[in-house]
Amino acid sequence: MDSDKYQIDLSDLASIQALLDQKAARSFLFQGSRDRYFVKRNRPTKTPTVPFLVKGFLGFFGLGYLAPSLNYGGKDSFQYEIDTLRRFKDLGISVPRLMFRGDNYIVLEALDGENVDILMGDGRNRLSVWVAAASEIMSLHQHKLCLSQGFARNIMLVDGRVFFIDFEENPLENMDLAKAQARDWIYFLLSSTWQFDSMDQVLLHWRSLIAVESPSVRNHLTQIAQRMNWLRFLPKKRKPWGRDIMQLQAIGRFLFQWEYANKPET
Ligand SMILES: Nc1ncnc2c1ncn2[C@@H]1O[C@H](COP(=O)(O)OP(=O)(O)O)[C@@H](O)[C@H]1O
Ligand SMILES: [Mg+2]
User: Is the overall model pTM greater than 0.85, yes or no?
Assistant: First the structure.
């Protein structure tokens, strides 16, 4: 292994390895002698049942590619995450630095910030957090790249700077780049718009952002908006329906308002 490329003390590494033997958690933060690290174990391959249902449901609307991959985890996902972290870093895209690669775990630089899901829940700078994350997704797309699962919890903010994390799924195995980029937006919108009571402000920013997106991504998004805006008729209240329904209702409302305003006047 090309260990000279890594910058981690051997004693820190030994402590991390001991912790991996003791702990059951999939990931944890570790304070080393100088720096803090985020340790993440390889996820075993799994075929979850929920995405299976979601895939069937979306397939019904001709949008099956929007479902999370049915098959990820295991060796290929582990390698894809490592390759993506390196490639993005080389391209100047903010991702945590890979500090060490073990057989079935990686050690990353710990980001001294919080994920966008939590930051938006906090409420104070909800719109500016959203705009920061969305702008960074846009510039990633301009590099002809896509995320794995662009949910708000997989985007972090550190002193106002956006970092992308969690690259276990390679969407390009199942779809072309334009679809993968449209899917990035849908995952981000699904996991973020439910935090806004009114979509007016966020739609203003969305319109100027999406104007720079490639025409094929915009076409996919328009098609999704046309097919899925009925989701706005779902119940809006969190209780007793839960967060999933609330998220679907919010993205339906968002897509409806966007699409409706896009329609040429007759
Ligand atoms: N490098 C990091 N530094 C600090 N926290 C992190 C880092 N990477 C991830 N996290 C936190 O841990 C959570 C889970 O990490 P993630 O890589 O998304 O793994 P999973 O595959 O379990 O979703 C993230 O939502 C984020 O809050
Ligand atoms: Mg994650």
Answer: yes
